[in-house]
Automatic annotation (TrEMBL):
It comes from the Eukaryota. Coiled coil: none annotated. Residues 2-177 form the Neurotransmitter-gated ion-channel ligand-binding domain. InterPro entries: Neur_chan_lig-bd (IPR006202), Neur_chan_lig-bd_sf (IPR036734), Neur_channel (IPR006201), Neuro-gated_channel_TM_sf (IPR036719), Neuro_actylchol_rec (IPR038050). Its main location: membrane. It is a multi-pass membrane protein. It is found in: Membrane. The keyword Metal-binding does not apply. This is Neurotransmitter-gated ion-channel ligand-binding domain-containing protein. GO terms for molecular function: extracellular ligand-gated monoatomic ion channel activity; transmembrane signaling receptor activity. The chain crosses the membrane at residues 218-238, 282-305, 325-347, 575-597, 639-661, 681-705.
Amino acid sequence: MNNKVTTVYVRLIFLRIGEIDTLNEKYQAQASIESRWAVDSEQLLAELSADDQQSLADGKSVSLQKYTESHWHPQIYIENALGDLKEQIRYTAKISKHDNRLYICEQRDIKGLFWEKLELQYFPSDVQDLSISVASMLYNDRVILLPDGDRKSGVNREAFVDQQEWNLYAHVDAEQRTTAEFDFDSTDQDDRPTTNIVGERKRTIVTVTCHVARRSSYFYWNGYCLIFLITLVSYTCFFIPPSQMYNRIQVTCTLLLTSITFRWTVNRSLPTISYLTTLDTYGIVCIFALVVSGIWHTLAGYLTFEYTANFVVTPRSWQVKYDRIAFCVQFGLFVFGNIAFLIWLHFVPLKQRRIMNEKDAALHVQKPGSKRKISEIDTLNEKYQAQASIESRWAVDSEQLLAELSADDQQSLADGKSVSLLKYTESHWHPQLYIENALGDLKEQIRYTAKISKDDTKIDICEQRDIKGLFWEKLELYHFPTDVQDLSISVASMLYNDRVVLLPDGDRKSGVNREAFVDQQEWNLYAHVDAEQRTTDEFDFESIDQDDRPTTNIVGARKRTIVTVTCHAARESSYFYWNGFCLIFLITLISYTCYFIPPHQMVNRIQTSSTLLLTSITFRWTVNRSLPTISYLTTMDKYGIACIFSLVGNVIWHTFIGYLTFEYTPNFSSNPHMWQVKTDRIAFCVSFSIFILAHMFFVIWLLAVPLNHRRKMNKKDAALNLTKPKGKRSLRVTDIEIERSSSSARIADDAMNLQTI
């Protein structure tokens, strides 16, 4: 029994980080933990074979079977795991070149859910820590855990799922902390201290943390910007004459209720917390600004009613002068408040991001490409279900295989037929294929056949793997609703490229069964399929000794080749054209009719424009609820926001022209020959012309950029000389689920054939 204090060095690699669930404060991850400690070399060497002893002497690692049954180990566990983890544990031994001591290395691969406290004070500019805490069942009088100073922890950024919502930094922090434990056995009940119930025994814990920053542009435009515009429009009420108090209060109350409803809509996407986020604080301050404006409009109307004859005021009335002073004070505070907020935002929440970027720059690493198929977002179940058949073939030694076959099988091979091989993997080499972008466990059926190739008369082994299950895919929604989505299956090998190289089969092309496509009403599945080979760097635990390992680059030199086969589906976007773009266009178009209301009827102009503005904002949030949470603006987002700014500009102009009419006309009236009316008509012509020209440029851009991708897809289909499938669909289909709702987009492949070597 080991009674000494053993120092265990811990290193952790985040192999894959899945969905970050802010509502439930947890995240999915797959990690590899390497714990090593020094042991008595004489005792262990006596138990090893001569070959293993020679391997150790040569500086190689030696695998240890059933090590824990007869040897001491630190009894590692994960402190912040949620539920049961999937674990695979193996032990190796190796002699260190640094101190010539024998080290035992426990390599623990884990996969599951982990709890993490999410600090949302600075939402949506927050930076979150995703950590895994490694602890020992033994106290610190037996084991002390330390971060491994020679072999740095790291994170595989290429396997980060939530890239559309989060930015994963390259650097990783590892720290040791100590926790006190309640001790029930070491102290007798008569000797137990009454003032301190915590025992003296402690545990050491190593916490390895990676960092993610929320991609916050979505919330800036759909949160801060819309709240700012609602509050900004409320100040136009100051230009309604104080005698029309009821119109002022009506518009202000409508904006106030809209702002409150908008706040609750945003809060539904956040976890229940007991403190205010930055967005909460900004929204509440703007609500108070609306309330103060409403109270002032009431007071100004009361003073006008109390101290004027017939409830009528002129620009020279003292009530109007006080009203203008109140406007200058409130609007000035609003402007300076927003400027101060921007300065605080730059120097406090965003400062942490600059610190993280500096740490990344010190590592001399580059951001992973955004188009890597291994990275995708799964915020609202952006995944699809499919059934596919994968055929992989490789050449083998014909003499060895023929010696194991029966005479009938040998004759079948000679006749050019395929021969079924039962239990082939038990005694023969195979590439150990797996599906890289699978979600959960797949249903698989694998069979092996042999056939003599007509090209080189060699025997090819063919692995036919039928799979069915869920696959994750990164959905690019920049051009929504004219987007074309790639649905891919990535085939990889457990062996590195010094053992296996995967290539797309040039003789037998991959394909897709279009007749088994489920959701033809919402998606158009193209006939052609693309297959490409790519290479990924892997974290290497064995090939580099700890003393020779570079400390500035945690990625090993070994690589894997992956074959990704992709089919393409284009969204049937006519529904969104008519119910999205068209309705937003009509709302904005109808707002220009307010220019034909006489300028002295400013109240009617502002009320109509404000109603259309609030309708447009509400419509935007209704459309966004059918989309996954993404950090960027889609084509429809940009179009909707541009139209909202157009509506705000119209409201401001109506306020300004009404003020000019009230200030410089007797009895607050107008006629077609007044300069205010002529100026108003010029403003209408300019504003409406910009509106029309902008739509012309938008249509041209739509044809030249988003729809150009569809034309390229159609050309590739035409090159295959294939016709579109009939409307009749096969019954043997499976669904691809892209969204959680029942009307979500569903795509299926009954047989997506992946031909790989």
